[in-house]
Structure formats: structure tokens, C-alpha cells
Amino acid sequence: MKDGPIDPLICPMSYTVSIVGGKWQWVILWLLQNEKVQRYGQIKKRLPTISDKILSQQLHALESEDLIHREEFPGIPPRVEYTLTEKGMTLVPILEMMAAWGSEHRPKI
């Protein structure tokens, strides 16, 4: 790698981090990979320390990158479900490697 600024359009690592850079985004993707379909409230319940504002922002960012699909169902109250898209599923091997690394290297309780 040459010295100089890293261009996210050229550097694959920089591009990936620019698309999925937030700490919560990886966790949300992992949750959807494991649970397949999740409603907003279910995600919030599994991530109690995330604020509603941040969760909404992270879900919107993942949806805008076509990593997750948001589907609204009419009703009172309306229901919204989130699933991984085909593009999101391509991150599953990375998520599995991250989980394996975390299992191996996290502090023992």
C-alpha cells in the first residue's frame, strides 16, 4: 500500500467500513442473521442500551445500503419487520468470523 490518503472508492477495507461502520450496525446484522425476521420492538429489547434515535438511524442506514429490508404491514398499530437482503446475507461469513473471534478473545467471566 502506498503512502497517502485512503480513498474509500479504491480501498476495499475503507469502502466496507464506510458502508457498515457503526458499532450497532454489525450487531443489528448479527441479530437479523440469527433471528431472520425482527420487529423494531424486538430489536430494541435485545439491545436495551441503544437509544431509539440511534436505533432508527442505524436501521435507516442499513436499509439505504440495501443490507436490510424494511416491510410495513398496515394495521393499528402498524407493524414493521426487518430482514437481511441478499446483499446483507453476503456479510454473514464476516459476521460469523467476528463472532468466533469474539468468543475466542473476549475476557472470561
UniProtKB/TrEMBL annotation:
The keyword Aminoacyl-tRNA synthetase does not apply. It comes from the Archaea. PROSITE patterns: HTH_HXLR (PS51118). GO terms for molecular function: DNA binding. Residues 11-109 form the HTH hxlR-type domain. InterPro entries: HTH_HxlR (IPR002577), WH-like_DNA-bd_sf (IPR036388), WH_DNA-bd_sf (IPR036390). Keywords: DNA-binding, Transcription, Transcription regulation. Pfam families: HxlR. This is Transcriptional regulator.
